[in-house]
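Duplicate of earlier report; DUF7345 domain-containing protein input re-posted below.
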Amino acid sequence: MRSRLAALCIASILLSSGIAAPVAGSSASHDGPTLEDGAESTLHINLSEGGDATVTLVTGYNFTQADERDAFESLREDEGAQSDLLERFTGRLQSVAAAVDNDSEQAVSEHSVDLRTTDERGLAAFSVTWDGLATVDDRTLTVTEPFASGFETDRTVVLEGPANATLESASHDPTVETDNRATWDAGTDFDGFEAVLSLPTEDSDTGVTGADDTSGLGGLVSVATLAVFLGGKTHLARE
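Output:
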């Protein structure tokens, strides 16, 4: 009963609000969000070499607090609620992709629900596959829309390219940057956004970085964050 009420509450918020931006798993070519990404509610955008992406909303649960543990267990045991939330999230982003005015023919489809745990922490990740999110020109990936047209969120945003990619430029300075990954703080205004990543040529000798450690979450968000993030705090607006 508790899980059904929680699912109905989240679905109600989702339906009555602006666009929701979820959590995502990874494409086959690289790793996606880890338990460490659940330290904050994180919007994780994981690009493939072909320009498609897995977009994921990552939310952490602190099992040392009984209400958060109970909420996570309720969600894990209710596959219907998981499917419903993923379907609603996918529908929201499909509307955004359909409104994008460029040549990338963007399209969104359901990808996965990923629930992970350690002894004291849990992670919930709702993911969609976003075809054509980045434009591809030779060995270069460029990300602009839909973020350039007024994307706002109070959550951390992570853009990650393939493991052997290099972030060449970004219109908005990242808070943290590695070779193939950039992170922007919550509250960043992405108006006019553009990020460019380069891929090595086929005859380049490149190494592949290892997967992120999945052992920790750091500071944790409250159990209500998933519902709030899916509901009202994130939206995409055309100027």
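The chain has one domain: 2-203+220-236.

Merging into the original ticket.
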